[in-house]
Write a sequence for this structure.
């Protein structure tokens, strides 16, 4: 098929500002290309596609970024900057899309406009919802679209989809990773890891507290989105507990991540999936996570990591002390079976075909 994939309007692909949706975009595009589909990516200017996606055509738009949906009040009205990137994306997709012969459009933005346009668009729009519930406006737009045609929506996990009012069982796609990009590490160092956007909904403070309790250093990878929050976490533990490693491209991240005894995953919100959980598993690193959101569904307790009662830092630390019992090879094996690009692309293709009948 000829497929248009529309990226997030919160930042350029490769900038790290798009968070997990950047990884999803590249996995989905590379997976569809590998299955012989022709793919065009519509993203913010300055976006960079990884080598695995270079066979895709890149369309770019300029305009002001959309405000991150999860950092607004739940009751906030729908807002778009007057010169918004979101509007530019969808004007181009709907004006040029039909002439370009796209049989389907996959939207990766967590925004109101593309959802609202779907019933009146000249092209079939499909939406991979990338977060749990963060606003009333999006909850309503998702519920209304699901009532119109639930086949146009897909989610990363069942627990994420449960946040929304859906008339039928949702399409659940998981996510996909390029295993060649992740090296397996059999022998860890006395080091714990945490990865993700450094922002309140990600709960870094709990992982820091657990590492301090255990007297182990905690390497922190990710874009510091909220400086004040990061400073507060740094101040909450003894100096030297946290090693701020910054936002690294995958090849550098996986090289460092593999040395961890465990990845701590401490979401405060209903994390839709938890890319970093699977990235750690791909390196052979067991995951100790709160039994919450996508990580609570992805981590196989006792096999690929340990799940603890959400927000219980003492239980988190106690579980980390037990993680040596987890077979590191079993962590990578789980990813090979459940979260490769090929698995994701098969599921995406089936989703589109089902929605087009
Ligand atoms: N906020 N408005 C808006 N649009 C997005 O596409 C978006 C977002 N916040 C976060 C985000 N996307 C991604 O980081 C997550 O979906 C992974």
């Amino acid at each position: 098929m000829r497929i248009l994939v529309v990226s997030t309007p919160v930042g350029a692909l490769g900038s790290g500002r798009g968070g997990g949706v950047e990884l999803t975009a590249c996995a989905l595009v590379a997976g569809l290309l590998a299955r012989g589909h022709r793919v065009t990516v519509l993203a913010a200017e300055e976006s960079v596609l990884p080598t695995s996606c270079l066979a895709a055509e890149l369309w770019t738009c300029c305009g002001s970024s959309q405000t991150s949906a999860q950092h607004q009040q739940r009751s906030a009205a729908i807002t778009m900057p007057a010169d918004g990137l979101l509007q530019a994306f969808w004007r181009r997709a709907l004006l040029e899309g039909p002439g370009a012969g796209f049989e389907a459009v996959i939207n990766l933005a967590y925004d109101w406009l593309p959802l609202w346009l779907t019933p009146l668009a000249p092209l079939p729009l499909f939406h991979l919802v990338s977060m749990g519930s963060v606003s009333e406006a999006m909850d309503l737009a998702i519920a209304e679209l699901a009532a119109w045609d639930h086949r146009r929506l897909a989610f990363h996990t069942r627990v994420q989809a449960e946040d929304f009012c859906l008339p039928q069982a949702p399409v659940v796609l998981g996510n996909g990773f390029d295993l060649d990009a992740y090296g397996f590490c059999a022998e860890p160092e006395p080091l714990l890891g945490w990865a993700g956007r450094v922002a309140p909904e990600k709960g870094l403070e709990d992982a820091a507290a657990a590492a301090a309790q255990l007297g182990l250093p905690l390497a922190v990878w990710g874009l510091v989105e909220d400086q004040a929050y990061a400073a507060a976490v740094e101040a909450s533990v003894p100096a030297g507990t946290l090693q701020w490693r910054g936002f690294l491209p995958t090849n550098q991240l996986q090289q460092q991540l593999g040395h961890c005894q465990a990845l701590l995953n401490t979401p405060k919100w209903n994390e839709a999936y938890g890319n970093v959980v699977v990235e750690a598993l791909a390196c052979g690193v067991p995951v100790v996570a709160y039994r919450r959101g996508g990580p609570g569904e992805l981590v196989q307790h006792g096999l690929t990591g340990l799940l603890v009662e959400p927000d219980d830092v003492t239980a988190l630390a106690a579980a980390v002390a037990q993680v040596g019992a987890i077979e590191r090879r079993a962590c990578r094996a789980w990813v090979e079976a459940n979260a490769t690009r090929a698995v994701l692309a098969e599921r995406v293709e089936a989703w589109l075909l089902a929605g087009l009948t």
